[in-house]
Structure formats: structure tokens, C-alpha cells
């Protein structure tokens, strides 16, 4: 669980990753539920973990909605990789899970997270005072969401247009390294137990 421990200061006070064997086991157990999907983002060439995306509280029926959570390995922060990872996650949510809507609730001070979802086409729908209890206190959150009808699988054709997705040096490097996204339930069977995935 070295990644979670090493990234704890970077994640604070916004989120926490499972940092013990017991917490990680509980996390993996949640993936057995149809209401929770954990996706791991890693480099294809060396299988180093880049980040994690969670789609939780998945509701079917007339709602077809999920709540989005995520965190990055601090070693890969500010390299544009989570932007690519979120785009892959949305593709999975809308094309594989056939969801209609994905919602992210973000604390107002988490500027980097707000920039990430906005970059990927999320729209601010509202403000929820004292929405979640974090660190013993009820915290305000902004509500951001994206629907399948205002999402495009191709970033170049997204509602944000080409200006937000121009091919810069960071994009070239990201494509050279190659990123892969897959459900944690599948990755855990070999990559994680080999010590090269989530626990490290």
C-alpha cells in the first residue's frame, strides 16, 4: 500500500486511499457489487499505477446514474494523465455500463479537481451545503455532472472543442507511454497480487 501512503499528504484534505491491507481488502470486496465499479489506470509499458476512478452508488431503472470519485498517484500528478484517465472512465461509464449520467461532488477549494472535470465536459449543476461528513465535519460541495447526450467519446469532438484538447508535448508523451484502464476486479487477479498495481 506504498502508493496510498506516499500520496497521503498530496491527497489531504480532499480524499484518502486504502492504506492498509484490511482497507484494501474491503475496497476490493465492494467491486463484487453491481453498484460499485473501481477502475485502475496504469502505464501499459511498465504497469505502474497512475490513478484510480470509482463509479459508486450506481442506480439503474429510470435514473441510470453513478457518482464519480478518483485519486492520482502523487508521482504522476500534474502530467495530464488523469485527464486521459477520466476520458477513458467516461467512455466505460457510457459505452460499457450504459449509464445516462455521471455526477462528481467536489469541495469548492479543490481547484485541481474542478478543473479536471470541467476539462472533460462536466457542467456545474449546483451547490450542496454540508453535503458530506469529512474529517468529522459536514462539508459543502459543488455538484458537477455530465450526461451521455453532452459527452463525446472523441475528445476532439467534445462540447469543449478542439481548443481544450490540442496536441501539446504532454499529449505526445502520454500517448508514447500508453495508458490502460481496466476494472480493479480484473486487475487484482494478477497485477495487484504481483505487487505492481494498486497496493504499491
Care to describe what's here?
- The N and C termini lie close together (5 Å).
- The protein has one domain (2-192): Aminopeptidase.
- Residues 1-8, 10-14, 156-168 and 188-200 have low confidence and may be disordered.
- The protein has 200 residues and is an alpha+beta fold.
- It has a seven-stranded mixed β-sheet with strand order 5-6-4-3-2-1-7.
- It is built from seven helices and seven strands.
- The longest helix has 16 residues, at 81-96.
SSE topology:
Layout: H1 2-6, H2 8-11, H3 21-30, E1 37-43, E2 49-59, E3 65-72, H4 81-96, E4 101-106, H5 111-119, E5 123-134, E6 137-147, H6 169-177, E7 179-183, H7 184-192
Number of E-state strands: 7
Task: Please tell me the overall pLDDT.
Answer: 77
Percentage of helical residues?
25-40%
What do we call the CATH homologous superfamily? Gcn5-related N-acetyltransferase (GNAT)
Strands ordered across the widest β-sheet: 5-6-4-3-2-1-7
Helix and strand sequence: HHHEEEHEHEEHEH
SSE class: alpha+beta
CATH topology: Aminopeptidase
Uncertain parts:
1-8, 10-14, 156-168, 188-200
Distance between the first and last residues' Cα: 5 Å
Radius of gyration: 16 Å
> What fraction strand?
25-35%
**Count of distinct structural domains:** 1
Main β sheet profile:
7 strands, mixed
CATH class: Alpha Beta
What's the helix count? 7
Proper CATH architecture: 3-Layer(aba) Sandwich
Shape call: globular
